[in-house]
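Tokens as discussed.
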């Protein structure tokens, strides 16, 4: 039973660390400082430090604000891709207490894996939420995450078996939704890559030409001259015949819009006439724009890296 309790504490704390590391550190530090739970591993005393608790609360306050801003929360998650799993691994190492070197290495790896899994799930789910047209759903989800992290962190120390059950259920849910979340996370890192290229001086025009060369055979099949098309990276969130977050390229030849999926998926491109200007909506974000095309034939919703929006707008006029 003691082993199961330790496992519940280890998994629960590392899981919530992947969602909000600073809140987890603050909760563990406060619980240890005020002796709210008996029988905790002595290693947790390392967090029983006023400076550590204060810094954790300040960083949690920063994350609390960052999580409420659609778009910026995605950027915040991206820069914590290494921080949260590493922090979760350290907390898991503390949770296992005194153990053999092999057990400590295993705890470190399990903690990093659990924190990494919950972090990727949070990042992917936030990207899904950010595609909604209003900001309130983002705020509601963020507050629910904060409450869940504090609650599960405390349960992991006070009632580790209950925390083990809850963590197992949440992990199963993540595994079921992993394909969609993974496509969303891949989009996040692609967006960061395109943004970095822009900051390093690679123009959207040159990237567009490179994309057109890459998909030249598909453009030829569609009867589009290579020099007459603008091609930008895009992810479809609503396009007939494609899964959500389908990676591909949006091509505009002045008369029609074409969505060409990445070659790995081997699907047939789809096309619609360029809608009237009033039927094209843009939603601005930190890394991406949400673009809504409402043609007479059907409606498309796509996510496009922000550096390519101006280029696309010029060809839509």
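Sequence:
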């Amino acid at each position: 039973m003691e082993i199961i309790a330790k496992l519940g504490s280890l998994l629960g704390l590392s899981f919530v660390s992947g969602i909000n590391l600073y809140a987890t550190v603050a909760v563990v530090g406060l619980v240890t400082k005020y002796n709210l739970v008996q029988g905790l591993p002595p290693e947790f005393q390392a967090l029983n430090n006023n400076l550590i608790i204060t810094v954790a609360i300040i960083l949690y306050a920063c994350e609390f604000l960052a999580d409420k801003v659609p778009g910026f929360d995605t950027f915040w998650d991206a820069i914590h891709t290494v921080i949260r799993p590493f922090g979760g691994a350290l907390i898991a190492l503390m949770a296992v207490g005194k153990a053999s070197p092999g057990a400590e290495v295993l705890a470190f790896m399990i903690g990093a894996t659990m924190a990494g899994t919950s972090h990727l799930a949070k990042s992917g789910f936030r990207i899904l939420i950010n595609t909604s047209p209003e900001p309130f759903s983002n705020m509601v989800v963020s507050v629910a995450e904060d409450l869940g992290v504090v609650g599960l962190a405390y349960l992991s120390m006070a009632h580790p078996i209950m925390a083990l059950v809850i963590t197992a259920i949440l992990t199963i849910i993540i595994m079921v939704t992993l394909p969609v979340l993974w496509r969303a996370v891949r989009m996040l890192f692609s967006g960061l890559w395109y943004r970095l290229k822009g900051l390093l001086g690679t123009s959207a025009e040159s990237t567009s030409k490179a994309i057109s060369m890459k998909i030249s055979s598909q453009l030829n099949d569609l009867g589009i001259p290579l020099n007459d098309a603008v091609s930008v990276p895009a992810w479809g969130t609503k396009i007939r015949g494609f899964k959500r977050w389908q990676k591909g390229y949006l091509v505009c030849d002045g008369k029609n819009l074409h969505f060409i999926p990445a070659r790995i998926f081997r699907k047939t491109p789809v096309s619609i006439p360029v809608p009237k200007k009033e039927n094209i909506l843009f939603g601005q974000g930190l890394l991406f724009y949400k673009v809504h095309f409402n043609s007479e034939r059907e409606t498309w919703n796509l996510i496009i890296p922000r550096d390519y929006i101006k280029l696309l707008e010029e060809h839509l006029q």
